[in-house]
């Protein structure tokens, strides 16, 4: 069987949930959407480089999503998600959240971006946040926005 949620780890595993957990959270957020997802876990340098090159922001960020633009005929790709492990750890500590809950949130957030959700406009942000909360609740996690300081 070909794995349709691939985890690539380019950073030490300290504090990073097991690949099976990452896949389960991505699958929950994918819902009925079809397509392969790659979760790439990176350090601050790689996150900064990607954020600079693709978003014009010269700093590491928690999560980047790259929806598939032109899938190969017969193959279905949703896209790639890049999560910066040091940023996720720092944010969890700053916000007083368990790291595992914040990791789940970043995975769900990234997958929803692949599915076309965004949070640029307030109305869209409300829809996306509500969807995140519902998915995270189905995975046993509390509302991530209630813990934000």
From TrEMBL:
Keyword Magnesium: no
Textual note on the cofactor: Binds 1 zinc ion.
Residue sites binding Zn(2+) per the record: 109, 113, 119
Pfam families: YbeY (PF02130)
Keywords: Cytoplasm, Endonuclease, Hydrolase, Metal-binding, Nuclease, Ribosome biogenesis, rRNA processing, Zinc
Domain of life from the UniProt record: Bacteria
EC id: 3.1.-.-
Cell compartment(s), UniProt: Cytoplasm
Gene3D superfamilies (alphabetical): Metalloproteases ('zincins'), catalytic domain
CC cofactor: Zn(2+)
Family: Belongs to the endoribonuclease YbeY family.
Its biological purpose: Single strand-specific metallo-endoribonuclease involved in late-stage 70S ribosome quality control and in maturation of the 3' terminus of the 16S rRNA.
Cross-referenced NCBIfam families: rRNA maturation RNase YbeY
HAMAP family: Endoribonucl_YbeY
Protein name as annotated: Endoribonuclease YbeY
Lineage, top ranks: Bacteria, Pseudomonadati, Pseudomonadota, Gammaproteobacteria, Nevskiales
Gene: ybeY
């Amino acid at each position: 069987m070909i794995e349709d949620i691939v985890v690539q780890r380019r950073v030490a595993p300290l504090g990073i949930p097991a690949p099976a957990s990452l896949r389960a959270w991505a699958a929950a957020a994918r819902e009925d959407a079809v397509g392969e997802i790659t979760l790439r876990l990176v350090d601050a340098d790689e996150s900064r480089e990607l954020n600079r090159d693709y978003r014009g922001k010269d700093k590491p960020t928690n999560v980047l999503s790259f929806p598939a633009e032109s899938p190969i005929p017969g193959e279905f790709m949703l896209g790639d998600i890049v999560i910066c492990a040091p940023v996720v750890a720092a944010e969890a500590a700053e916000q007083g959240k368990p790291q595992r809950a914040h990791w789940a949130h970043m995975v769900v957030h990234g997958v929803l971006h692949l599915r076309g959700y965004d949070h640029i406009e307030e109305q869209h942000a409300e829809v996306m946040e509500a969807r995140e909360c519902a998915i995270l609740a189905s995975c046993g996690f509390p509302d991530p926005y209630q813990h934000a300081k």
